[in-house]
Design brief:
The protein is mainly alpha-helical. It is 97% helix and 0% strand. The chain has two helices and no strands.
Length: 183
């Protein structure tokens, strides 16, 4: 009777062992799948981080170009204004006795001032365009940062799930070891 009972117990343990082995294989398959998915997510994360760095570099370049353009246009404007003032003073001195000639020169200077006003408007329009570009780049940067955070959240969730399954597997192995010791 004891032999039959032991044989049944051995058979039960063999069945349990088979089930645990199958469960272990399934968990290893799931683990491999999760590792693959984790690797893919990390690859995507690296790509997004590179995109953010590229956008940061582009943003820095846009800001640098904007500042250089502002400086250049300010210098050019100051130089033009100074040049026009000098021309006006020279014209007034040279043509003090000739009113019609003075009127003609003043007309030319007025046209140059109109051109200068047009250039200032062009500068204003370019400035607005650079601001729009800057806002767009900042928006894209914020979107990419949000996507990176989303990928990090998914990665963290997967890691917690993997740790939980490993803990469950270890508990099953302890139970199996305990059953073997009892027999």
């Amino acid at each position: 009777a004891t032999q039959n009972m032991l044989a049944e117990k051995v058979e039960e343990l063999a069945d349990t062992n088979s089930q645990l082995t199958a469960s272990l294989q399934e968990m290893e398959t799931q683990q491999a799948s999760r590792d693959k998915e984790k690797g893919e997510l990390e690859h995507i994360l690296e790509g997004k981080e590179e995109e953010i760095e590229t956008l940061k570099t582009h943003l820095d370049q846009v800001e640098s170009d904007y500042e250089a353009l502002v400086d250049s246009l300010n210098k050019e404007t100051d130089s033009r204004v100074s040049e026009l003032q000098n021309q006006l003073e020279t014209a007034l001195q040279e043509t003090a006795g000739d009113i019609s000639s003075l009127k003609s020169q003043l007309k030319d200077l007025g046209q140059q001032l109109v051109v200068l006003s047009g250039e200032r408007e062009r500068f204003y329009n370019e400035n607005c365009k650079l601001r729009v570009d800057n806002d767009r780049v900042c928006g894209e940067k914020e979107l990419l940062i949000a996507k990176v955070e989303e990928v990090k959240t998914v990665r963290d969730t997967l890691e917690l799930d993997i740790e939980q399954q490993v803990a469950e597997y270890q508990d099953m192995m302890k139970c199996c070891a305990n059953l073997q010791q009892e027999t």
